[in-house]
Every structure is written in C-alpha cells, then in structure tokens.
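Module 6 notes. Inverse folding takes a fixed backbone as the condition and produces residue identities as the prediction. Think of it as a translation problem where the source language is geometry and the target language is the twenty amino acids. Below is one complete input and output pair. Work through it position by position during the lab.
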C-alpha cells in the first residue's frame, strides 16, 4: 500500500507540474516594443525608488501575460528561514497580501530549487494549504528571483483563469521582468541593511556617551568613599587603585564588540560574571558585609552573552548607586536566578535604600538600554516593581541566547 500511495503522489505531481508544455506552446503576438519601453522606463527608476517600482513590475507582469493575478513570494532566511511572504499582489489574489507559505512545500520552493521557470496546473490538487483556501488555480507560471552571485530572493508568479493560457513567450517575458525585480529587491535589502547599521551606530554613540557619564559618576563615588574612610593618603591610594581595577574589569565585560569572527570562545559562570561587574559598585563604601547576595545554580554563559549580561547588571548597579540601595551604606541587593525550561528567571531586589513614594516620571537611557538588551539580545522580558521598600526587577532570558 505504501508504494501505491507513493506512485499516486508521483502521478499527481506530474499532472501538476507541466513545465514541459511551455516549449510546445508558440508565443502569442504581443506588442514587444510597448513592453520593452515599459520595462526600460521602470528600470530607469530603480536607483531612485527601488521599493516604489516593485508593485508596478508585478502589475506589468500581469498585463503582459494576460493573467488574472500576480505577485511576489519573498524569501529571506535572515528574517524567517524556510518561509515565503507574499508581497505586492495584484488581481484576484490581492486579498492574500502579507500571507506566508512554506519554502519546502510550495511551487515557489520548487521554482527556486530548479532555478528556472515552472508551469503548474491546479496546484490545489497537490498542496493542502492551497485547497484549504478554496482556491482554484488553472495555471500558475513562476520564475525565480535571484541576483548575479546566486542569492535567492524569491519568485515572481502570475495566475491564469484557464488552462493552456501561458506559453513560451510569457515565460520569457516574465523571466526578463524577474531580472529587474531581483535587482530592485536586492537594492531594497541593501538599503534596509544600511539603515539598520546607521541606527546601530547611533545607538552605540548614545551608549558610549551614557557609559562615560556613568563611569565618572562611579569613579566620583569611589573617590569620596575612599577619602571618607581612609586613615592615610597611602591607604586611600591603595583602596582607590583596587576599586579602579575592579571597575576596569567590569567595563571590559560591557564593551561593545565590533565582530565576533575569529574570537576564542570563553565561557563564564553567571555567578562569577555578576560578581566581577558588581565588585566595582560595591567598593563605593567601606562595608562590613557584601552589599550583594547572589543565589542561583551554575549557568554557563557564552562569550557573546557575557557582554550583554554584564551590560544589564552594570546598568542596574549604576542606577542603584545613583538612586537606590547602593546610595546608602546599609543598602543591599539580592540577585537570584533559576532555570525554568528554556528560560532563565532572574530577580534583582533592592532593600535599605531611600524609600520609594512612586515610580519615576522619566525613564533614563540606561533603563532603556537594559530593556532593549534583554528583549533584543536575549529574547526575554523585563518588568519593574516600585515598592516602598525598594525596587524589584524581574527578568526572563532565553537559555539558548545565554549559551552563545
């Protein structure tokens, strides 16, 4: 029975994929000059408005082939692997704008694998997700979208409302259009990458400015604390030197890395990492006991995760020194964590600092930076509880991200 099912599936597939029929269908008479002029006009606008010409390219494909619908299926592994997203749809299928389809279970995927035009008859007979939408698609012509280096971008497709509609001329015309569409998509992708790079540079610049301000604030607290408790200038120098070295160690952990390529993997236990960062802040006052109580199991942190985790702890400790528990010698902070499934749950609880009457009106850049790091780098969440006794912060962090 298994073989019978396989044979039936193969037979069904051969009835659906009818690309070989294209060569036997002579091209219809078309106004080639008008079509060429339209394509050249659009190509001339690529450099100025690559995103704006994409819908027009799709519309032109529908007009040139006499199709009832047309669209792009965009494939972007960086965004969502193994998934196509439908964009710039025209005609009868326009209502599916933004829909997604699987890369490895669709005619679009077959087109990319073949790297050539594909003609399909009634794909709803083979693909359940097409049939589930009650779609009847007599013929679909698909061509791959790719650039010179072989990068796959997706497919351009047109749909006919009758069998034997598309011919070899249609396939050539849509393939010619696909060259321009692929170029437009690549230009838009590069523009988006440039925009993200500029935004990241701006964030890094803001972060550096913020970090310098915090560095001066922490150093000032160290100097004042050392002077207040030192018995002699030499004792003050020794104490301050040790604290500055601790601050340097913490700062090295929170620095931004330009590239991880070629880096030696250097895992660190979460407890050791936290102690390294908080030691600089703890040294502000002479204390009979540590200001930080740590409680949690051993958790191995990857090299890339160390910088992000250190940044988060550094920002929380700096805020505690400025406004919270570390502002007073009797203040203390409990940092506890546990692993639940795929997530690390970490709590930061401050006590013994100035009483809190209400949450702050303004959110500082340091808090925004910590929130952004938790969400962006660690696919997690961060919430705050501004109780009268002191601030409590609850975080969830992805263990997969912590291991990297």
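Target side of the pair, the amino acids:
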């Amino acid at each position: 029975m298994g073989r019978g099912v396989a044979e039936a599936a193969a037979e069904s597939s051969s009835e659906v994929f009818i690309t070989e029929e294209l060569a036997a269908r002579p091209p219809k008479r078309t106004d080639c000059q008008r079509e060429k002029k339209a394509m050249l006009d659009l190509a001339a606008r690529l450099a100025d408005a690559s995103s704006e010409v994409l819908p027009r390219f799709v519309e032109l494909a529908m007009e040139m082939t006499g199709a009832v619908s047309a669209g792009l299926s965009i494939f972007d592994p960086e965004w969502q692997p193994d998934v196509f997203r439908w964009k710039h749809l025209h005609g009868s299928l326009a209502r599916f704008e933004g829909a997604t389809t699987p890369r490895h279970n669709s005619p679009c995927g077959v087109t990319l694998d073949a790297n050539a035009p594909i003609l399909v008859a009634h794909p709803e007979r083979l693909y359940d997700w097409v049939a589930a939408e009650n779609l009847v698609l007599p013929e679909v012509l698909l061509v791959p979208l790719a650039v010179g280096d072989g990068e796959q971008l997706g497919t351009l497709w047109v749909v006919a409302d009758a069998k034997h509609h598309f011919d070899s001329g249609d396939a050539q015309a849509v393939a010619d259009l696909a060259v321009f569409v692929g170029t437009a998509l690549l230009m838009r992708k590069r523009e988006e990458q440039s925009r993200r790079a500029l935004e990241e540079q701006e964030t890094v610049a803001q972060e550096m400015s913020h970090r310098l301000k915090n560095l001066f604030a922490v150093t000032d607290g160290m100097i004042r604390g050392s002077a207040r408790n030192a018995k002699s200038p030499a004792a003050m120098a020794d104490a301050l030197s040790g604290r500055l070295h601790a601050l340097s160690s913490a700062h090295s952990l929170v620095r931004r890395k330009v590239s991880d390529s070629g880096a030696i993997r250097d895992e660190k236990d979460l407890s050791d990492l936290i102690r390294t960062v908080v030691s600089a802040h703890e040294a502000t006052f002479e204390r009979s006991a540590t200001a930080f109580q740590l409680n949690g199991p051993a958790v191995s942190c990857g090299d890339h995760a160390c910088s992000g985790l250190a940044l988060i702890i550094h920002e929380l400790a700096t805020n505690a020194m400025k406004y919270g528990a570390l502002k007073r010698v009797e203040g203390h902070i409990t940092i506890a964590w546990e692993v639940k499934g795929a997530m690390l749950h970490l709590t930061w609880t401050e006590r013994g600092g100035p009483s809190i009457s209400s949450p702050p009106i303004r959110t500082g850049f340091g808090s925004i930076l910590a929130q952004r790091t938790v969400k962006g780098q660690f696919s997690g969440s961060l919430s705050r509880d501004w109780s009268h006794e002191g601030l409590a912060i609850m975080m969830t962090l992805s263990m997969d991200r912590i291991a990297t």
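Reference fact for the lab report: The chain has a mean pLDDT of 78.
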